[in-house]
Write a structure and sequence with these properties.
The protein is mostly beta strands and 261 residues long. It contains one helix and 26 strands. A four-stranded antiparallel sheet has the order 4-5-6-7, with no helix packed on it. A four-stranded antiparallel sheet has the order 8-9-10-11. The chain has a four-stranded antiparallel sheet with strand order 12-13-14-15. Strand 18 and strand 19 form a beta hairpin. The chain is elongated.
Length: 261
Amino acid sequence: KTQTCGYPAWPDRRVGVVRAPDLAAWAFSYKQGRRDRRGRCIIEPMFGNSSHFNDRGLAGVYMDHDKGSALFDYQGRHRCRPGQYDSFTEVHGDVPCGLWEARKDGLNGLIDDNCQVVLPVECYSIISMKDWVAKGWVELRHEARACGAYNFRTGAVVPPVYYNVAALGPDLLRADPDFKGPVKLINSRGELVSDIYDSAYGEKGRTEIIVTKGGLQGLIDASGQVLAQCRYSSITPAPYGLWEGRRAGHGSEFLRRGGGR
């Protein structure tokens, strides 16, 4: 609605701004609504509480104890019917990915902006850290510390049956069956790439992955291809995108980006 609200004037208690339209929160009789910068009523006061409307004009809204929560657009239309889920949390890193964590009866799943189910509400928790989301992954957890992952760019699901998981890159996930190793490297399609390494980890700002086998280290790329065999006692980042590989009795070697000496 764009006509003037038929409610008494209320102080402009802004809690957030979206780019289109530019909305501010206001309240009447303990209910929240939305109005634009000129004071025109866009959404009648009907919410018990709500998150900020995002750049796509959507917000997770708590209605009340009886109606539960809903996903609303900036025109006051709900994408999910009230009560279908208990709460909504947007999944986003530096760039939004169009997904929402939906919670129901203590379990979590994923839905998209149109309230279509992406992952069923079956997970004990869904962890969407910024660095994971930037690589296209979110972490899935079931009870008893069973971890898995979901790649929202390909739709691949790594079942939550591992002791620990880590997103090494857009196309590579490390899954630890237990705390002793060896680890499994799984690509973004959910396929096993390798299970011969004792450990695998990345360095900030680098796309290559350091792997360890039999106490010696090597390099692989973000897709799991071998760049340097495991023959170094240690590999550490060096300036200008180089890597320094140390070999017992042979001194140091500098490896170029991509693994060549």
